[in-house]
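USER: My hope is that you can spare some time for a protein that puzzles me. I am handing you a single protein, as its sequence and its fold in token form. Walk me, if you will, through where the backbone shape changes along the chain. The protein I mean follows directly.
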Amino acid sequence: MSSLLLQSILELLHANKLLVAVAIVVVYLVSNVVYLRYFHPLAKFPGPFLASVSSIWRVYHLWSLHMPEKLLALHEEYGPIVRFGPNDLNFYNTDAVQPIYKSGRSMIKSNFYDGFTTFKANLFGNRDEDVHAIRRRQTAHGFSLASLNEMEALFDVNVAALRKKLNAYADSGQPVDLKEVVAFYSYDVIGELAFSTKFNSQEHGRVEDLPPINDHILLGCTYGMLPSLLPWSMKLSKYIPWKWLQGMLASRLHLREVTRKSVEARMEDKIGDQDLLTRLINAKDPETGAGLTTDDVASEAFGFFCADIKCRVAGSHTTSGTQTLLFYHLLHNRKALESVFEELASELPLLREVGAYPLQGLEPRLPYTNACIRENFRMSPVFTMPLPRQVLTEGGVEISGRLIPQGTHVSVENYALHHNANVWGADHNVFKPERWIEGPTKGFGNYLLPFGLGHRACIGRNIAMMNVMKLTTTLLRNYNFEAADPKEELVMESVGIGEKKGPLMVKVSKKQT
């Protein structure tokens, strides 16, 4: 009887091969879900059910363009540690910052960063600590303050072009989209600074000429958040006939082509002895004397356009995003704006000629202006993607009082940290520069993460601050600005790099005193 039953079952299975295959897949998927949710080493950490069993949850919220706000909401619901991926934990307490980002080689970058590789892995994406150390030694001098001081004139000539445009709007009385004109300025600056190339976008004023950074960042984050699909997903993407995907791939190829042409032109012509590209070509490891290969140079040059991702403001797109948000916050906080006006007027004369202020010795004279810049970084950081590190320590490592298993990907997303009410107070959503001058948060600079932290922090920080200080001091000392819509609410959108949604329309007039 039993043999007949077994034979019947075998015949049934043979006759329904598709059903058997489906059943096997279903059993596998259900088993995997049960394991990830209830038996995985991270099962004890709270978070959304879907996030614990699939990376699709993260991709969905990335594509909603509101991942930073979602992570903050999760922390407010679940507490200081949130599981937001099958093998991913995000922290938003201050005591997690140092062990994650200042633990050296015991916390390497995760495979998330592989999604951004276009030529070869550059400073941002390279996960090999030995290679990264060599590359950083080779490139550090080009990003030093001394090196940038030699290139300050490149900033000034583009600030002058921006001022001419603002003067025209001031004379006409027409409102101007400050976000757009600063984007043109930023693109021109990075062109000259990095490649000695005049893009002339301020002169032409065509939005379509701006590099499609958003597409590259969104594509990189999407790849990186699906690590089990790398690297074959990057190779097969070009065969998937989805218009939006092909558009993003085309944008990345466009950026690659611009970079390739710039590198090839420099290799052939040997011009532009002051720019960053030439400094890369001539860079040597001070310890070994080794230089960069052509592919290495192209990889780092690609990072110039894409803000070296993490640097936030080393590239064109992220400079304009930061500057736009600073002006938004000031224009919608009149008291802070008037205080900046007063401080600048007491320290700087009006510029009778179209130009910019020299930076040497400027920062220490402007404590309130600097506090506004820091508060803008806190309120609205432009680089908002989590920066995951992989725990290498055998047996795990303690973070925020919890033992985190070896192999886990851990991060501190800066927007969530910057809006932790337990750190910054109940007024964390208020633009309040005074918090950096007085009170308990005065010394909280180590918890401000616009450029990352530790040995993998943004190498372009000096470029960022030079750009921000140049524009902020020159524009706010020589012009009056007024929001065209004083009641406009700030809406952020983030593809991993964030920006204000829509234009920033302002009325501008020249100052007389």
In short: The first helix runs from residue 2 to 15. The first strand starts at residue 81 and ends at 85. The chain has 22 helices and twelve strands.
